[in-house]
Amino acid sequence: MIDVSLVREAIKQRKARSESFLGFEYLRFSDDYKDIPRGTAVFQDTIIWGYPHIGRIFMLEKGLKEHFKNPFWVEEKVDGYNVRIFKVRDRVIALSRGGYLCPFTTDRVGDFIDLKFFEENPDLILCAEVAGPDNPYIEESPPFIREDIKFFVFDVMKKNQQTFLKQEEKLSLLERYSLPGVEVFGRFTSGDTEKLKELLLKLNKEKREGVVFKEDSEENRRAKYITSYANLNDIKVTTKNMLQLPPEYYTNRILRLVLFMEEEGINRTEHLYEELGRAFIDGLFDAIEQFKKEHKVYRTFRCKFRNKDNAVALMELLHRTSKHIQVIERELKQEGEFWVLTFDKVFLNMTGLLGHLLSGGLVFD
Amino acid sequence: MIDVSLVREAIKQRKARSESFLGFEYLRFSDDYKDIPRGTAVFQDTIIWGYPHIGRIFMLEKGLKEHFKNPFWVEEKVDGYNVRIFKVRDRVIALSRGGYLCPFTTDRVGDFIDLKFFEENPDLILCAEVAGPDNPYIEESPPFIREDIKFFVFDVMKKNQQTFLKQEEKLSLLERYSLPGVEVFGRFTSGDTEKLKELLLKLNKEKREGVVFKEDSEENRRAKYITSYANLNDIKVTTKNMLQLPPEYYTNRILRLVLFMEEEGINRTEHLYEELGRAFIDGLFDAIEQFKKEHKVYRTFRCKFRNKDNAVALMELLHRTSKHIQVIERELKQEGEFWVLTFDKVFLNMTGLLGHLLSGGLVFD
C-alpha cells in the first residue's frame, strides 16, 4: 500500500493528482515520486503500479556480462505505446504509461484480447505494447503492421503488486487465453553473445526495434537493446517536429546508432551516411513545404473506434494533455462497424519558428 | 559610464567579477547584465564594451527586406574567435569575446598588426577575428589558412563608447596602417538578393563561413548569414565532443542547413545526405576508437608564442576557465624564434559516457 501521508505530500508537490474520466475517479502519479513510478494509479483501494523504467545497454556483450549473472529470456521490443489493461468494477480499461485512462485502447481491447481473461483473473493486469499505423499517439509503426493496430502482451502483473509474474506463468496464461504476445526468442546466457548479435542483426534487417532481456531469477533484472534501424527511424519520423523533443533525443540516437554499428561490425558505407543525413533533411524539407502551403506544420492521425463516445473522449483527452501541440478534429464518421476519427496534431513550436524564419526573422543565439 | 550601483548589483548577482591577470586588474562582465553585454571590461576609468550580439537571418531575401531599409555593407564572416585589441598603460592587449585577457592573442598581435596604430590612436579598439589551425580555442579553421593564425579586423570602436566607427573611417584606418581586414564584398541594397545569393553560393563552394551585413546608416543595423558548408563543418568538427555542446547546437545547424539549401535552390542529392551523415558518424567513431586505445577522448592543440611566459599564462587561463574539459600540457619547446606549446583538451563528458557505455553500463532515459 502507499501511505496516506506520502500521497498527500505527492499531491502537494504536484507529483500526483486526482483524475476523473470516463466515469472513473482515481489518483494518478504524473511523475516519479520517491519509489513510486510515474503512471501509478490508485482506484479506491486498488493500486495499479506504474510500469517500471528499463535501463538501456549500448553494448551487447559487455552489457549482458555486466548485468546478468543468471540466464535470461529475450523478447522482442515492439515500437508502440505501453499500456496496462485490467478490470475495475465491471469494466476492462487501459491506462497509458503516464497513467491516463485511454479511451482508444479501452475501446479496442476487446478486438484483440479475450475478455474472459479478466473475468477469470480479476486481480491480474496485462502489460502490452499497442502498435500500428492507426494509433492516436505515435508517428511510427512497425512496417510489418500494415493497418489498424495490434496488441503485444509482454508482462502480467498483479494488482497492488509491483512485481511481474514469472515467464512460465505468463506464457501459460497467454496460451490458455490465446492472447497475442511479443515474440519470445528464447532463454540465453551472457555467454551467448554471438547468437544474440546474429539475432539483432536479423531484427535490424527486418526493421524491428530491438529486444528486452528479462533475467530468469527472483530479482528479474531487465535491460533493453535497440537496433540501429530503430534509432535511424526515430530520427526520420520526428524531424518534422524537431523542436518538440528534447534535442538530446537526436544526439542520443546518433550515439546509439554508432555504437550498434561498432559492435555489430557494420561498416560505415556511403549508404548508411546517406540514410542518416536523409533522416534529418527530408523531414525538415517536408515541414518547410507544408508550412509554405498551409501556414502550419502538422501530422494527420487516424484511428477507429467501436463506440463513438470513446472517440469524443479521446479528443477531449488529447486537447487537455497536449503541450505545444494543437489538436484539431477533421472528421468522425461511421464506416461499417467502426467510427473512424481523423485529426491533426499541429506542431506549434515548429510552426512558430518557421513562420519567424521564413518571413526573414532574426535569431540571436 | 556604468553607474557604480549597477556594478555593485552585477557583482552581487555574479554577472561581473574582478580579474587580475598579466599584471592587469579589471572588472569583467561574465554575462549580459541589463544593457551591458557579456565581455565588457572596465580598466580603472576606461570601459571596453563587449562586442554586441549580431542576429542571424535564415532567409536571405526576406531577411534583408525585413531588416535593411538602407544600403548595407557586406563583409566576410571568418570562422575564428573574436577579440578586441587596444592599448592600456604602455601595453597592447587583447580581450576574448567573454572579456578574458588572452595571453596568446596578446603575444602574437605584433606579428600581424602594426602597433604604431595604437601609439597614434590610443583611444581606439580593433575588433578582429583570429583564425587558423594553430589557435588554442577552436577546433575549426578556414581551409584557406594553412598554418599558424591570421588576424582579420572587422570593426573599430572607441574606448568608452558602444558604437563603431563608420565603414569609410574604418577602411581608411586599415589602409593607412596596412592592417589585415576581412574581405569587403561591397555596398548593396535589399533589392540585390540575386547578386548576394550568387555570392553566398560562391562562398559556400569556397568553404567560407558566411557574411555580415552592416547598414550604412546612423542605426548601423547588423545581421549575419551562414553558408551550409559552415553548418555542416560545425557539426563535423564538434561531434567528437558532442556532449559538451548544448544539443540545440546540432538541431539548429541542421535546420539552418536545410533553409540555406531551400533558398539557394540546392538540390537534395545523395552526396549531401551523405555529408551530413558522415559529419555525425565519423567524429563519433573517432571518439570511440580513441577511447579504446587511450581511455580518453581528446583533441591536441598547438600554438606558438614569442614569449614563453605567455604560453605559461595561457595554460593557467585554460586550467582556470575550462569546464568539463581537462587541459593537459604536452610540451613547450623553443623552435627558432618561437615557443611552441602543445596541449590536449580531454573531453570529460564524452570520456565518462563512453567509459560507462563501452563497459556495458545501463542508461535510463
TrEMBL record, chains A, B:
Residues 237-361 form the RNA ligase Pab1020 C-terminal domain. Residues 71-226 form the RNA ligase domain. It comes from the Bacteria. GO terms for molecular function: ligase activity. It comes from Hydrogenivirga caldilitoris. This is Putative ATP-dependent DNA ligase. The keyword Protein biosynthesis does not apply. Keywords: Ligase.
